[in-house]
Write a structure and sequence with these properties.
By secondary structure, the chain is an alpha/beta fold. The chain binds one RNA strand through strand 8, strand 12, helix 10, helix 13 and helix 21.
Length: about 900
RNA sequence: GGGCGAUUAGCUCAGCUGGUUAGAGUGCUGCCCUCACAUGGCAGAGGUCACUGGUUCAAGUCCAGUAUCGCCCACCA
């Protein structure tokens, strides 16, 4: 044991221990009816991703839970895996190809997909390996990937079932279109970002033939010349099909039904009336562009107007844009504005703040775009998911997320699930070439889409001739028998596979033993960013496909930010790489620090220095353990049991404190209060165990005299007992250092499989706690004097302690050795009869006077100043208490317990004050 | 426009159901390399708990409002 280094070296230990754990199969778990399961599924990270601090926090928390429950005897299973991250991965591989001078179009779909798989073979394990460095105890043999065979089958199954129930439909709607990724996106994938834009006022002239007043000069002429509309996206005007005004708007009433000429295009459009139009915004007249704006699309349906698309999928203007065709949307905007200006039709330009959608993968400005896509009808699915949370079958921690969840669920909108990319699950939809000539003519279902009813259409079954939904390619069309069948080109939204994760990873749709035993999972730990994307949808799918919630608790931790409050992201360059931190400080340090600074659900503000907290603590654990191991004779050390007799005061105290610590750490974990659990364990270990108990134990361990052989043995047993239990408490938080120490204690198994300490209430000893507290305060006040009076540390003191009560001596007797040693007192005289020595400093404690002899060195001035200050402190408190006690209301209304407590306090303070006063006078 | 969170020591933050003297880490000051640990030990200074009002015997804690910062949601072009 002597060769244990005085520095904990995480680098040398972590990797070795981790592979040890893995080799022994300690992370593995399989159904076992005799034990209760505790199951967590990992929020699958993006397969192209690398570990960032959010992952580090997320996985630290999950690992704490899993290790803790495992120690508690649960059959703990943690299922890891990654998702295929369709768009992100495709983008990455495309970028790589571009570097090689190739494009995916050149390769073709099949070859491209091969490239992606190749890429995933090479890089897909990066994040998994990084997670391992964190020390997480996942059952790696169960690692899943959303594109695996089993999970793909689950996706197909889910699609089929929903389609058969009429919950999946397709139709022509305005969706979020990313012109860069060239795919549709769900609403969640197109977050609105406040943007400084411009509002352009454009005049649409009347059609002259209508016989409006003859043109006159000046303003009047202009006014008569047409209607001014306001728009933020002038390029879309080429696709205008009408101008809408509010039917109640007096300014425009007379124009309703009249015709305008669409500038630059020359097309005739109507002025129509629609309630949607806000009289107060802009000019009160709206250009209607059904193919490029969701509201306009709704208006157009109400007025049976044909949409005109003016943009191609790549964001360039199409042939409907006439001479602007081929121009990029933003260049077209400029060109159009230029022409409008030249013709005098651009009335004015205003600055305008508005929120516009951006692609969550590439941040490109989203184009609302009319497109034929597949949707999941969410409203019927949302009902049970709302119910499950309202009835508490699923609980959120912290609670406030419940409201956010319900609010979203209650206003849920249909989910666009088709993506025009190649990497992902191809839709299990097949078409009969023969029959779909009709299918292509499917008309838009015109169910109303208002603020309260956002269902985007009804079943189109009766119109879906020649459309076959099937896991495998049908041989012939059931309608016409033709064999010319082709599959839909689109793939599904990645979240359409992720939302099945809690059960697809356990074998669904097969009825596996795993599924039966481990589902529903216990706790989901995740970041609020994906509450809607993932959490909410998992609840929906769990209830739909399993008829049971996917998890009982959802713990939402904060977002990791840098010190300025910004989200950590690569593009901002404010990233702290967890792997760097692990290399520099160790995994335990990373984990401990992350949790320490993360209050329940609060965002985390990170800086490098914060990891020193964990590093220092790991080192403290290491060294305290080192001390214990160097000073205990292991071969004789049997585990401490209650039967051990002759415990000294300090022993009784530390065992009592340990018991309380076990209780409160467990309770904190039960309530997902991780930082609290950690700090309780930290305080106990560092401040009770190291600062006091170890110090009290030192003389016993150092003294080899025969007479204390028994004491020594007992001390060793207690030391080991407390150390072992502390290590167990700390293990979920700092798995490596605790394991490293554990294995140094003796030839033994892993701490991972040890039992979580159970609090033994019979060890709680209030008397010992009180007594040690008293001894601590005696020691502290002597140290205080030493420091205040500038007494060198090497000087040994003579201390008189004078109890004011009869039994006072007894209280201190057991602790006198501690006082001597920890206050560095050579002579300690505890006598009721002692008189105050001539030259001394005084401390006043509850029930005791303490005199520190300073023969020859007493500085009366300093001593007086010191005592005065103490007295002032007491005086302030006393005044406050007395004021309270004089308050009739307080005496009458406050609980008796509180009142008597206050009274005692007042008496105590008064007594101390008097004693101080006397001492001061005597100086 | 709606919702949520934050505001406590120089800095970063805890403080759950109101009740002894409001805590920690870090930084600062002084003293110590004392035989586990200087990634350490001992002692100390530092707070009108954002502001205003209210409820209460009692408010950092509960309620209302104000201010500042931040986040999320939302089809006003």
């Amino acid at each position: 044991m002597k060769d244990i280094p005085s520095r904990y070296n995480p680098k040398e230990t972590e990797e070795v221990l981790y592979s040890q754990w893995e080799k022994k199969g300690l992370f593995r778990s399989k159904p076992d009816p005799s034990r209760k399961p505790f199951t967590i599924v990992i929020p699958p990270p993006n397969v192209t991703g690398i570990l960032h601090m959010g992952h580090a926090l997320n996985n630290s928390i999950q690992d704490i839970l899993i290790r803790w429950r495992r120690m508690q005897g649960a059959n703990a299973l943690w299922v890891p895996g990654t998702d295929h991250a369709g768009i992100a991965t495709q983008n990455v591989v495309e970028r790589k190809l571009r570097g090689e001078g190739r494009t995916r179009q050149e390769l073709g779909r099949e070859e491209f997909i091969k490239e992606v798989w190749k890429w995933r073979e090479e890089h897909g394990n990066t994040i998994i390996n990084q997670l391992k460095r964190l020390g997480v105890s996942c059952d790696w043999q169960r690692t899943r990937f959303t594109m695996d065979e089993g999970l793909s089958d689950a996706v197909m199954e889910a699609f089929e079932r929903l389609y058969d129930k009429g919950l999946i439909y397709r139709g022509n709607y305005i969706i979020n279109w990313c012109p860069r990724c060239q795919t549709a996106l769900s609403d969640e994938e197109a977050p609105h970002i406040d943007t400084e834009g411009k509002l352009y006022y454009i005049r649409y002239p009347f059609k002259k033939a209508q016989g409006f007043p003859q043109l006159r000069s000046g303003q009047a002429r202009l006014k008569a010349q047409g209607v001014v509309v306001a728009t933020t996206r002038p390029e879309t005007m080429l696709g205008d099909v009408a101008v809408a005004v509010n039917p109640k708007d007096r300014r425009y009433k007379k124009f309703i039904g009249k015709k305008l000429i669409l500038p630059l295009v020359g097309r005739e459009i109507d002025i129509i009336a629609d309630d949607f139009v806000d009289k107060k915004f802009g000019t009160g007249a709206v250009k209607v562009t059904p193919a490029h704006d969701p509201n306009d699309f709704e208006i157009s349906k109400r007025h049976s107007l044909e949409p005109v698309k003016v943009m191609a999928p790549d964001g360039k203007m199409n042939k409907n844009a006439g001479r602007f065709a081929g121009m990029d949307r933003f260049l077209a905007r400029e060109a159009i504005l230029r022409e409008l200006k030249e013709t005098g039709l651009l009335v004015k330009t205003e600055k305008h703040q508005h929120a516009v959608g951006h692609c969550y993968r590439c941040h490109t400005l989203i184009e609302p775009y009319l497109s034929f896509q597949w949707f999941v009808k969410m409203r019927p699915l949302a009902g049970p998911a709302i119910e499950a949370v309202k009835t508490g079958k699923v609980k959120f921690y912290p609670k406030r997320w419940t409201k956010v969840y319900l609010n979203w669920m209650e206003n849920i909108r249909d989910w666009c699930i088709s993506r025009q990319i190649w990497w992902g699950h191809r839709l299990p939809v097949y078409y009969c070439k023969n029959c779909t000539k009709q299918a292509n003519e499917l008309t838009v279902d015109s169910s109303p889409r208002t603020k309260t009813s956002l269902v985007r259409g009804r079943q189109l079954t009766e119109k879906n001739k020649g459309v076959m939904v099937s896991k495998v390619k049908p041989e012939r069309c059931p309608e016409c028998g033709a064999t010319d069948i082709y599959q839909d080109e689109d793939v599904l939204d990645t979240w359409f596979s992720s939302w099945l994760w809690p059960f697809s990873t356990l074998g669904w749709p097969e009825k596996t033993r795993d599924l039966e035993y481990f589902y529903p999972t216990s706790t989901l730990v995740t970041a609020p960013e994906i509450l809607f994307f993932w959490v909410a949808r998992m609840i929906i799918s769990g209830l739909e496909f399993m008829k049971e919630v996917p998890f009982k608790d959802v713990y939402l931790h904060g977002t990791v930010r840098d010190l300025t409050g910004k989200k950590m992201s690569k593009s901002l360059g404010n990233v702290i790489d967890p792997i760097d931190i692990i290399n520099e400080f160790g995994s335990d340090a990373l984990r401990y620090s992350m949790i320490a600074i993360t209050a329940t659900g609060q965002d985390v503000f990170l800086s490098r220095e914060k990891f020193e907290i964990g590093r220092n603590f790991a080192n403290k654990i290491w060294n305290a353990s080192r001390f214990v191991l160097m000073n205990t004779n292991l071969s004789k050390a049997k585990p401490w049991t209650q039967s051990v007799q002759g415990l000294a005061l300090a022993d009784r105290w530390i065992l009592s404190r340990l018991t309380r610590t076990v209780e409160s750490v467990t309770k904190a974990l039960d309530n997902y209060r991780f930082n609290e659990a950690e700090s309780i364990a930290y305080d106990f270990f560092w401040h009770d165990f190291c600062d006091w108990y170890l110090e009290m134990a030192k003389p016993i361990l150092a003294d080899s005299v025969e007479r204390i052989a028994d004491r020594r043995k007992i001390t060793e047993l207690v030391l080991l007992y407390v150390l072992e239990n502390s290590l167990k408490l700390l293990h979920p938080f700092m798995p490596f250092v605790t394991e490293a120490v554990w294995q140094n204690i003796e030839e033994r198994g892993s701490i991972m499989t040890e039992k979580w300490p159970k609090p033994d209430r019979s060890l709680i000893n209030k008397e010992a706690e009180k007594n040690i507290e008293l001894i601590q305060s005696v020691i502290i006040s002597i140290r205080n004097i030493r420091s205040d009076m500038n007494i060198p540390h090497t000087a040994m003191l003579t201390v008189y302690i004078v109890p004011l009560k009869k039994d006072g001596c007894g209280k201190l007797e057991e602790g006198s050795e501690h006082i001597k040693r920890l206050a560095r007192a050579e002579k300690l005289i505890i006598e009721k009869t002692s008189k105050k020595p001539a030259q001394c400093a005084t401390a006043v404690l509850e029930g005791f006077n303490i005199f520190v002899s300073l023969e020859g060195v007493i500085d009366f001035k300093a001593e007086k100043a010191r005592l005065r200050k103490k007295m002032e402190d007491i005086d302030i408190k006393l005044k406050f208490v007395n004021k309270r006690l004089k308050d009739d209301n307080f005496i009458k209304k406050a609980p008796e317990k509180i009142v008597s407590m206050e009274k005692e306090k007042a008496a105590r303070l008064k007594e101390q004050k008097d004693r101080l006063k006397k001492t001061l006078e005597s100086l």
